[in-house]
């Protein structure tokens, strides 16, 4: 792998780190709308869930060899958070950026949300390609069932899948 393989992630992290610095050093609650700050911390809570839970879940359900990185799965994981979105950790990056928008309430932090969303989305497409190579048709079928990043659509699809299961 070379630097080009990490360009999108680098842009994402530079944008988020810039948002963090601007939010907590210069512009926390810029317009004094405390309700938005609370909304931001709620988003941050979801960031923790979608960002950290997969680490433990992959180790438990993904057939990760001992002493290997949690991303070295040998089995496709499609339960838990992975029954709602295919890329919960990518989603966590977007949610973190959104949280900072609400906490800061400054237009510069808002603008930095754009490269985060775009680069994370593009990175998730690249991950899909790699996972199709790794898991083949099984992953392609999973992609038809579970959205990549849209948690609301993922919940709707999960509910309908469960209703269909009950009917059969």
What does this protein look like?
It is a single chain. 71% of the residues lie in helices and 0% in strands. The protein has 168 residues and is mainly alpha-helical. The protein has one domain (3-167): Four Helix Bundle (Hemerythrin (Met), subunit A), CATH 1.20.120.1630.
Compile the SSE list and pairings.
Blueprint: H1 7-26, H2 34-61, H3 88-104, H4 107-135, H5 137-145, H6 151-167
Helix pairs in contact: 1-3, 1-4, 2-3, 3-4, 4-5
Unreliable residue runs = none
Order of helices and strands: HHHHHH
Q: Beta-sheet strand percentage? A: under 5%
- Counted by DSSP, the helix tally is 6
Number of domains: 1
Q: Tally of extended strands?
A: 0
CATH architecture: Up-down Bundle
Main β-sheet: number of strands, strand sense, barrel status? none
């Amino acid at each position: 792998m070379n630097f080009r393989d990490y360009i999108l992630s680098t842009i994402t992290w530079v944008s988020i780190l810039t948002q963090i610095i601007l939010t907590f050093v210069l512009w926390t609650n810029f317009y004094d709308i405390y309700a938005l700050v609370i909304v931001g911390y709620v988003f941050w809570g979801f960031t923790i869930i979608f960002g950290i839970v997969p680490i433990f879940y992959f180790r438990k359900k993904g057939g990760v060899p001992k002493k290997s990185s949690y991303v070295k799965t040998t089995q496709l994981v499609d339960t838990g958070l992975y029954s709602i979105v295919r890329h919960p950790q990518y989603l966590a990056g977007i949610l973190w950026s959104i949280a900072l928008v609400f906490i800061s309430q400054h237009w510069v932090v808002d603008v930095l949300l754009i490269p985060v969303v775009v680069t994370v989305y593009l990175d998730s497409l690249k991950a899909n390609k790699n996972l199709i190579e790794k898991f083949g048709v099984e992953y392609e079928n999973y992609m038809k069932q579970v959205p990549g990043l849209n948690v609301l659509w993922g919940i709707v699809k999960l509910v309908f899948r469960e209703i269909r299961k009950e009917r059969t």
